[in-house]
Amino acid sequence: MQLELEGKVAAVAASSQGLGFAVARSLALEGVRVGICSRSKKNVEAAAKRIQDETGTAVFSRVADVSQTEEAQGFVEEVAERHSALHILVTNAGGPPPGGYEAIELGQIEQGYRLTLASAIAMIKAAVPHMREAHGGRIVNILSITVKQPEVNLLVSNTMRAALLGYTKSVSRELAKENILINNVAPGYTRTERLGELAESVAKQGQKTVDQVYAEWESNVPMGRLGNPHELANAVTFLVSEAASYITGATLQVDGGFVRGLL
Q: What is this structure's pTM?
């Protein structure tokens, strides 16, 4: 299968670790010129070096808090400016705080909106003009299986990620004729730093050990295990490639069969 990604330019948000890092690494392995960002200068510079050392491809890194609109857009604009083009955008952000109705305060709802929904919209708005100049582009949002099957104790994620799904589905129809394709990936329980934090929170609330929480999650996955970040990254790499040239407005589950619904 010909992915035809070599020489393309990509901005991958929230990518110093976890799923974002795995995606940036996967794209660099295909010869994509990648820009990454994180709130931590130390972490993002270390991530860029790891990718460069492994792939031989130079990686641009920038400190950015994508929950701040100006910083989210500034990251995308700088990647495009440095390479005089932008072909790929992968939106991503650290997960909003866990909790249900009684635990979540209004301030956390507002924070979740800025982090999860507004950040992606801001980056898409910044990326599309550059993609129009390139006569096409690919956008992938890293969401969660909560857009297909809301999870207990993840009220903010259930709400904001579903809203982003609606936004991008609408936008995909408007931009399809310009060969700007927008899709989503919905990762299931995947072994990342973020999942570790969630496991600790669930363990504390349920008076369990972290290992017990992981075991319960694995028992609910038909494949009997948690996902690995590179498995999600492979799906994203496919969706931004020429091999996926007739796919837009879709949401691809990468969850080991976890979601039980038909759609």
A: 0.94
For the chain, give every residue range classified as CATH 3.40.50.720. 9-188+230-251
Q: What is the DSSP string of 122-146?
A: HHHHHHHHHHHHTT-EEEEEE--GG
Q: Give mean pLDDT, residues 196-201.
A: 82
Distance CA 100, CA 18 (A): 24
Angstrom CA distances, 101 to 110, 144, 167, 173, 199, stand at 14, 19, 24, 34, 19
CATH of region 9-188+230-251, choose from 3.40.190.10, 3.40.50.720, 3.40.470.10, 3.20.20.30 = 3.40.50.720
Report whether 47 contacts 23 (CB < 8 A). no
CB atoms within 10 A of CB 100: 13
247 DSSP assignment: -
